[in-house]
Specification:
Length: 312
């Protein structure tokens, strides 16, 4: 079976702790990927809200240098996917393949020219905000809106081929971004707000708007986003999100966005190898293999294939 996971914080945690990306203390363990026919992972550089301007740019620079060193150090155990040919190769390759991403549009330091620099560094997805406001837009715990700079930045991202990730935006900014963009946007790690009321989750309307555009939405494993009350999240509760979003027409939209190494995740799914149990839970609950494979891989694969082909 194949896995395509649209969000983790493993890169940022490992860099901070001075670990390699195959460190056994991580939730996302490189070795686990060997048990799958293909494993594509978006590795995000998470930039805290308070890191701004030139500091944000150099924060990214240090993490990018770390990522390049890790690619050299880990050799074939970590396969970098910056373009379409690499993605197509990753599709039939065991072990971990990685797409570089950034969580926090403050990476641009408020400078439009940085969008192309970030693209040239190999980044193919940027989450516009974290929980607070930044130069681009308003995060879910704050009251900002998409700014003039934010508009220019998303246009430049669309032009270059950096996926626009709307996870973490507040509701107003979410709709601002939709109005300012034409291409499919995606939510890398957000669940259904109808099932769990946390504001980090998407409303039904938001989910449908992403779907209409041809975007994708990754199921987040963070227990606070799975069930109200948080702790003790179960496969049944995770399936409730999938069931609800399928009723909204999510068959070609749903994907995975684990949030490994960035969230409290229950033991049932706190490592990649346990994804096999969750996959089995889908089958046991009447999801056909074709649908399960779409959610675990093909929907996200198709989105990034279109992005890297220049079709988005
Ligand atoms: Zn996040």
């Amino acid at each position: 079976m194949r896995v395509f996971d649209m969000h983790c914080d493993t890169l940022t945690v490992c860099k901070k702790k001075g670990w390699d990306l195959d460190n056994e203390n991580c939730q996302l363990r490189l070795g686990d990927a060997d048990g799958f026919d293909s494993y594509v992972q978006l590795y995000a550089v998470f930039i805290p809200d308070e890191v701004r301007g030139e500091r944000a740019q150099s924060f990214f620079g240090a993490h990018h240098a770390y990522y390049r060193r890790q690619l050299e150090h880990l050799g074939p155990r970590l396969y970098d996917v910056p373009d379409l040919a690499a993605l197509q190769k990753a599709r039939d390759r065991c072990g971990m393949s990685s797409i570089l991403a950034v969580e926090g549009g403050c990476v641009y330091g408020g400078e439009l020219g940085m969008v192309e620099q970030v693209y040239n560094a190999g980044v193919r997805s940027v989450t516009l905000t974290w929980n607070g406001n930044n130069e681009l837009a308003g995060g879910v715990m704050d009251d900002g809106r998409l700014t003039d700079f934010g508009k220019e930045a998303v246009h430049e991202m669309e032009r270059l081929g950096i996926a626009v990730d709307v996870s973490h935006l507040n509701d107003e900014s979410f709709y601002d971004v939709l109005a300012a963009t034409e291409k499919p946007v995606f939510a890398s790690h957000s669940n259904s707000r109808a099932v769990c009321s946390h504001p980090r989750n998407l409303t039904d309307d938001q989910f449908c708007r992403i779907a209409e555009r041809g975007g994708v939405v990754g199921l987040n494993f963070y227990n606070q986003f799975i069930a109200d009350g948080g702790e003790g999240a179960t496969f049944d509760q995770m399936l409730a999100h999938l069931d609800h979003l399928l009723q909204l027409g999510g068959e070609n939209v749903l994907a995975l966005g684990s949030d490994y190494d960035g969230a409290d995740i229950e033991e049932i799914i706190d490592r990649p190898r346990k994804l096999k149990n969750f996959y089995q839970a889908l089958l046991d609950n009447g999801f056909g293999r074709e649908l399960a494979d779409k959610i675990f891989y093909w929907n996200a694969y198709g989105y990034f294939e279109r992005l890297l082909a220049g079709e988005l």
